[in-house]
Structures are given as C-alpha cells and as structure tokens.
Amino acid sequence: EKAPPPARWSPQWVWDHAKEMASHYWHGSKLLAADTRIASQLLVKMMRGRVLSRREHSLLVRVLGDLLRVIPLAFFLLVLHVRRSVRSRRPSMLANSTAFLWRDYNAPFIYWEIVDLLRKLFLTTFVFFVDENNGNARLLRLVVAVFISALYLTVLALMRPFKRSDDLYLACMSNFLLIRCFTSGIVIKLCDESGAFVDYSCAYYTGLPGSYEATVLVGVLSITMLVVAVLVVAMNIATASANPTIRLVSSGCEPALELSEGCEHDGFVSHVWSTGQDQAATIVRRLQMLLPGICLWLDIENMQSVASLESAVGGSSVFIVFLSQGYFKSRNCRRELYAAHAASKPVIAVRETEQAKGALSVQGLWTEGREGCAFEAGAEAPADAVLGRVFAEAPVDWVRLHVFQLESLKMIALRMLKRSPYYRDRNEEITGGLRVFGEMRSVSFASPMTILAITTNAGGLAAAHEVAGAVDPRRGEGVAVEAAESALRRGGADLSRSGRLLLYLNSATFSQPATAATLRLVLERGVPVTLLHEQDGGREACQFCELFDLAPRELQLAPYKLFDTIAVPLYQTAELRAVSLRQALYDMGARPLRSSVFAACRGRLRWRFGPRRVAVQRERTDLDPDLDSERSAGSSEPPTPPTSPQRSRECAIERL
Question: How many of the other CB atoms lie within 10 Å of CB of 124?
C-alpha cells in the first residue's frame, strides 16, 4: 500500500521539495548551457549571412530570454571572479569596470550588492508565490515581507558592510520605512470593512475603532517617517561637512587607492621621535580621515620589532619622511632611509616649519644629512645619492593652522596619488588637482576696495600688488593699490570704509622711522590694518616675538594696539602662498565665491527686485529732503536737487 504524503510544512515535506527544486535547477542549468552553446553557433552563422530557420530562430530567442533572466547570477559570478584582486587592493581591469558592485562595501562584504539584489527580488517577485490562490486577500504575504525586511535590517546593523557610515544609516532608514509600509498594509487589511476580515473586530487586533482611524494613523506615521528620513539625510550632510574627504577636481569623486605589486601599505611614515612623533601621528590620522581606506605604516601603531623596519619599508608603496631637527642623527631613521633607497621607493619629504618644534631650512637639512649619513655603517649608497632622492622634489611645508594644514595634506595626497599604479596611466584625472571641504577658495569683494601700502615699508608695495592679484577677476568688484602717503594727502571721509592698510612684516619693517609715522597717521584715521608676516628666510623673515622688540612701543599700546590683530603668515611654497593671499583678502572683507548656480540665482533676484528698491529709495529721499542732506553730508559728491513727490512717483513707475 502506498504511503500517504507527508503533511504540509513538515520536515519530510520540506526536504522532498528542496531535493526536487535542487534537481530542477541542476538539470535546467545543464540544459541552459547546452542551449547557449548551440545558440552561440547559430549567432555566428547568422553574422556570416546565413538565414536561420524558424526552429533555429525560436531557439535563439528563447536562449537570449533565459540569459537575461539570470543577470543577477551573472553579477554574482563577476564579483566571485574579481574578489581576489579587490581584497588585495590591486584591482584588475575587470574589477575596475565592475567597481559599482563592490566599491561602497568593505573587503569582507563585497558580495553585499548581490544579497541586497536578492532581497529586492524576493520582495518584488518571489513573495507572490506565497499563498498563490488567496494571497491578495490574506495577510501571509505581508507577514513574510515584514519578517524578511526585519531580518535584513538586523543583519545590516550587525554586519555594517558599508565603508561610509552615512550609507549605512540611509540603508537602515530605507528598510525601516519598508517595514512601516508593510505593517501599515496589515493594519489597513485588518480594518478594511469590505475585505475578508469584516467578521473580525478591528478594535480587537489594532485598538482602532474603524477603517477611517486606521487610515489617519497610517498617514500620520508616513509623514512622521518622511520627516525623520529628511532629518537623517540632513544630519548626514552635516556630518559629511564636519568630516570632509578629499575629492578629484576633474570628477568630484573620491580618488581610487591601489597598492603597488607586492605591497601591503600605501605609505611608510618615517620620523624621529624627539621632534616629529606627534606631527607624524597627526599626518597619519588626518590622511586616514580625508582618504577613507588608506593604509599607512606608523611605528607607534604597526611596529612589532625594530628588526622588521626594512621589511616594512619594502612592503609600502611610497616612503613619507617627516624632516625635523635630529632626523638624520637617528640610526633607525637612517636605516629606514637607506632601505627606501635600496628598494627604489618613491620618497615624499614633509618639512617641519615651526622653529620651536625643530624646524630646519632645506640647506640645514642637507648639512645635517651629510653629517649623519657620511659614516653610516654598511651603507652601499653615498650620502649625496640618498639625499638626492629625498630632496629630488621640494619638500611639503607642514603647517599646523587649519586652512594651511588642509593644503599641506592635499599636497601629500596628490604626490601619493601621482605615484599610485592606478593613476600612472590616468594622469589626466589628477591634473586638475584635489579639493576638500573647508579649504580656502577664491575670494572677491562685494564693493570696490583699495589696498593701502606704505612706500617706506620694504616689500610692502610688492606684497600689496600680490594680494590684489589674488582676487578672482571673474566676479566681484575690482581692487586697487595705492600708496598710503598719497591717500592721506588726498583725504576723504571714505578712506576708512573702502580702504585697508596692508603692513608687510619682516625684520626690516620698522627700520625707517617714516614707516612708523605713516602707520600712526593711518591708525588715527580709523583705517583697519591687515598684518602679513613673511615666513621665507631669504626675505628677511623673523619670528613674530621679535617684532615686539623692533616695533615702536607706542604702536603696541592704546589707542593703536597694532599687534592685537592676528597676523597672516606668508609662506614661500606656491600652494601655501596662494592660501596666505586669500586669507589676507578674507581679513580685508572679501568672501569666497558662490557657485555658478547660486550666482545666477542672485543675479536674477537683483534684476527682479533691484529697480523697485532703488525707485522706492528715491521716492523716500524726495519726500524727506532732510534724509538726502544727511546722506550727502558725509560724501564728497554734491547732493542731488530734490524733485517733487509726483515726479518721484513717475520715475519709480518708469524704473519698474
């Protein structure tokens, strides 16, 4: 006698169905492979000009349709094929072409895009196979959808597969919204008076008296969740602004980081502990924030043994050396330097600029390097060859101030990217440079500005012209440069409003008494002063504390208080010098340029509302002649004779 079939959803029933489904997919895959082989031959024959029969044409169309249905499986095979090159951070050409599948996820979770795709397919397609006969009228499909979404949300929160936290927050929020939609569907079905649950009490299951209240509840929850989603997006934008990342100017995307062959780290950071340990750690920490995913070797974090220094240098793509006083006197630093020279590693030199923290000039570093490397035991390369590799490119000046520090970090990152295998053949992508949120952008003035310079201030007039040349000429008002002595002789009440004195500070600033006398007259006229402190030793630079001894005592006390203003450092490196000039303009009242979109919108608003405002102002002035006389009293231009109110209104209508 034949045994009865197992009960539905019993273990035996589930096992039998699983075996049947596995056998079905196995035979179907073999049949698809055979059909694909035949279809490829037919496709070749068709391309050669042969006309296919009706049977062959039907086979070709059916195989192409089957192949389109297994595209998700093709995604899985692509990720499976490129997984090794992605995890080793040396992506192949195929891996770069399929980067949209894995670039947003951490290395252990490069398959997560496939998991997310399967979840979407289940919620949009496979869920319809649940309770095929009465699924639209019952709750089982919605319950299964809620379970799958909640399970995926839990796994997402525990695994955290995304590289960026804002992507993780948005993914969790979207799944939470899905769960809310499915649960709202359950509530609406329970309280639908014309549905299958009319015999059951809506209040018994949901606590709501009827369908109207259920609809209101669902609407309120939907609006609340949308508001929460908008707040989460706004918080992510604020977080991204507070923690910016370096991006390419050419594309606006984050740069791709690729390791060289046989390397485990993007860079080896070499420094001397006595004067460079804290700043080397700062460089590593800031680069890791600006370039997510970068891997840098630092001794205080990665060193297992002093004997492994040479192997660590050999396993890094570039060699970053932080040059400060005493670096070349350290034996371990010289070991790292000679190991980088022996392995022909690209060297990126970063120079300390704070005198109190061990800064040395390039010539001083050369002298210390020759003395330290000349008698290095077991050195195969001469000292000049090693130092020539270090100073083959001008060192990056390391500055601690925020806007200057961002520029220094950009210079280090750009040099690292230029030596990356990925950009070795894609140099055009980084030719435009890098950008980061918070950097000092191009500036312009909203109104005409005159920069005053004292002629007896050595280098002051040239510095004023250099600062004026840093104004972006595309938008904004022009900037003029004038000698302070001639401006004082000319006079004018608008000198303190449209003028700004630029005082160039170095060891020769107060060498002539006429400089202090002119400066005193300018300060008495109420003209604001911008201090520009030279940092180049070849241009008679001095420490800021030395200026207190060089400047006259009366200028440092009330009412002048010259040094109460924070001085802007003027650096020699072209990139840092551009930031210094823009910072000086910013202190004078210039502001960063808006984007072209905002500028266009602002221009439209001026065109739309500007004439009316001018006309109304003219009408107010003509109605109140005292107001016009008060305004013209402080101006050198002759006042405009008043007209009648009727004529003023006519002018206003004409202007509008």
Answer: 9
- 335: its two tokens: 């070991």
Residue 73 pLDDT: 65
3-class secondary structure per residue, 585-643: HHHHCCEECCCHHHHHHHHHHHHHHHHHHHHHHHHHHHHCHHHHHHHHHCCCCCCCCCC
* DSSP code, position 106: -
pLDDT number for residue 591: 86
What CA–CA distance (Å, rounded) separates 281 from 356? 18
Q: How far is CA 377 from CA 335, 338, 381, 567, in A?
A: 10, 11, 11, 47
**Where residue 475 falls among pLDDT bands split at 50, 70, 90?**
low
Structure-block tokens of residue 451: 């920069």
Instruction: Give the separation between CA 435 and CA 410, rounded to whole angstroms.
Output: 8
Query: What SS3 state is found at 443?
Result: strand
CA distance 228 to 169: 12
Q: Both tokens of residue 559?
A: 């009412």
Fill in the DSSP letter of residue 88.
Answer: T
Mention every residue, 6+ apart, whose C-beta is less than 8 A from residue 592. Answer: 440, 441, 442, 443, 586
How far apart, in whole angstroms, are the C-alpha atoms of residue 465 and residue 262? 51
Residue 548 near residue 567 (C-beta atoms within 8 A): no
Pairing of strands 568-570, 449-453: unpaired
C-alpha–C-alpha distance, residues 247 and 420, integer Å: 16
Q: What is the DSSP letter of 483?
A: E
- What is the Cα–Cα distance from 260 to 318, expressed in whole angstroms? 9
CA 211 from chain centre, in angstroms, equals 49
For 200, phi then psi, to 5°, come to -100, 155
SS3 content of the chain, % helix, strand, coil (to 5): 60, 10, 30
Query: How far, in Å, CA of 480 to CA of 208, rounded?
Result: 74
Using one digit for the tens of pLDDT, what is the confidence trace for 444-469?
A: 888 888 999 999 998 999 999 999 99
d(CA 128, CA 136): 9
Residue ranges of alpha helices (H) inside 374-512 are 383-390, 402-418, 421-424, 460-469, 484-490, 495-498
Per the CB < 8 A criterion, the answer to whether 443 and 414 are in contact is: no
DSSP 562: G
CA torsion sign, 418 to 423 to 425 to 427? negative
Rounded CA Rg of the chain: 36
397 touches 408 (CB < 8 A): yes
244 touches 170 (CB < 8 A) = no
3-class secondary structure per residue, 316-345: EEEEEEEECCCCCCCHHHHHHHHHHHHCCC
Query: What spatial distance separates the first Cα and last Cα of the chain, rounded to whole Å?
Result: 101
d(CA 609, CA 56): 71
% of the chain surpassing 70 pLDDT: 82
- ∠ CA(21), CA(25), CA(26), 5° rounding? 115
Condensed to tens digits (0 to 9), the pLDDT of residues 424-433 reads 888 888 888 9
Please, is 596 exposed, middle or buried when counting C-beta atoms within 10 Å of its C-beta (0-12, 13-18, 19+)?
Answer: exposed
Q: Decide if pLDDT at 370 tops 70.
A: yes
